[in-house]
Every structure is written in structure tokens, then in C-alpha cells.
Design goal:
The chain contains 11 helices and no strands. By secondary structure, it is mainly alpha-helical. The chain has one domain: Up-down Bundle (Formate dehydrogenase/DMSO reductase fold), CATH 1.20.1630.10. Helix 1 packs across helix 11, helix 6 packs across helix 7 and helix 7 packs antiparallel against helix 11. The two termini are 27 Å apart.
Amino acid sequence: MEEEIIISGRMNYKVDPGLHIWGWEIAFYLFVGGLAAGLLFFASYYYLQGKEKEFPAAIKWAPMLAPVMLALGLGALFLDLHHKLYFWRLYTNIRLTSPMSWGAWTLMVVTPLSILWSASWVREVFPNWDWKFKFLYDLEAFFIKYRKVMAWIMVFYSVILGIYTGILLSAFNARPLWNTSILGPLFLASGLSAGAAVIISFTKNELERKLFSKIDLVIIGIELFLVIHLFMGLMASTAVQIEAAELFLGGKYTLPFWIFVVFLGMIVPAILEFLELRGQKIPVIIPVALILMGNIMLRFIIVYAGQASRYLY
């Protein structure tokens, strides 16, 4: 009998079965990117509907958070880079088959657009605002004139940004949990729900609050539908997909996901919003905080659980 010695590096740090290359930075970026996408989508959509007077929080106030969220997200992405001085190389080419390329160029469009959109409303939101220099007033007048053009671009790119936060993960075939087409729509719906929740917290208009509560109820229903079908699809697939699903169906991610994401992050705020629509006095901050908590927990759990799912056959 011949003796064979097999030397493997699979147990080394950051190699299977403990692969955790992506940490909190990516999960945080996915959260703030989705939230910004939701805010910008509602702002541009209702502006195109001519509702800037009826829905000032959605169109003028809440979107001012979007540039801040995107800046924080870009900061988190920068922290995640191992070769930080070479980030600019993403902008030296366009690769239609690369999710990273799509994301880089989408952020290149959305981030300055969100700043310009906010700047065009700043003197309406803050009447005492002074730009100090005449050329800034001229720029403001120019962008106010072309707000409709900005809105059309923004409504399109905000949807791309929202879906991209899920596609960034689903493009990784080596991670069974992520390799599903449902992540894109799920993360888009989640971002829209977060955006609607923030608008609800900003508005002082009863009509606007009720409208976005109804919108959020519908979106939460869609989220629950997508979550159920995510696991139905995994359980109906191959052994590795079934093992990935079992991380949430009796595995170590079961309690965090179903309690913090589904129950506290979707079902409870949906019940509270329904009760508020029926005339009950519910403090606005409670459903808003729960929805945002569920949003960020969804990203963190999916990012970490996806890296725990693997092909080892």
C-alpha cells in the first residue's frame, strides 16, 4: 500500500470553509445605496407627476439625505478596497458583463445628480440660504430650469441602483445563496420600503403620510412574497442550494433572519401602519425605525450567510 500525503491550504485564513472576504463595509453600502435609490425614485417619480406642492417631503426634503447616504456608502466601499489608490481604474473602461462596472458607472451618474437635485430645492427648504456667489445662483437657475430632465434620468438610474445592490451579489455563481435572480427585485423592494419610511418620518402632511403608508404596505407585501419565493426556489434546486436555504430554516441564521428581518422589520411595521390608517395613534418613529432596522439586517445577514454557503463537492 502506498501512502499519499495531501497538503491543502483550504483551512488557511480567508479560504474555504471560512470565507469572509466581504465584511460590514459591503453590507452597509448595500443598505445606504438601497435607501438612496428609494428616496430618489419617489422624488423623481412624483415630481414628474407634478406633485411637488402636495408631496414636499418626498420631492424636496427627504431626498436631501440621498447624497449623504451615497457619500457614506462610497466611503465604506473605499474602506473595503485593498488597493485604494487604484479605484480610478474602474472608470477607464466599461464592461457590460461586469456588475462592478455597472455599479461604478451608476454611482458616477446618481451621486452628482442627487447633489444637484438637492441643491435645486435648498432655498425652498431653507428660505434663508445664501449661495454667496452669483455664479452659484446662475447654476441653481440652470438646474431648476432642467429639473424635469434630471427627474427622468434619476427615475431610471434610481431603479438601476436599487436592483444593482442585489445583482452585485447574485452575479457570484460560487455562492449558492446569492446565485438567484430574486435578490435584485428583493433589494429594490427593500430600498423602496426604506425610502417610503424615511419620507413618512419627514412629512407633516396627512395626505402624504397616508399615501406613503399605503405604498409601504404594498411594498412590504411584495418583499414577503419575494422572500417566500427565494426559499422556495432554493429548496427546489440542487443540494448546495438546499444547504444554503437550510442556513435560514433551522441553521444559525434562522432566528436573526425571521425575527429581525421578517417579523420585526416587515410584519410588525406593516401591522402598525395598517392600524394607523384605520385611525389608531401610532408614533411614526416606531414603524420607521423597525423598517430601517429590518433593511440593514437583511443586507448584513444575506452578505454573511452568502459567504457561509459554498460548493464543496
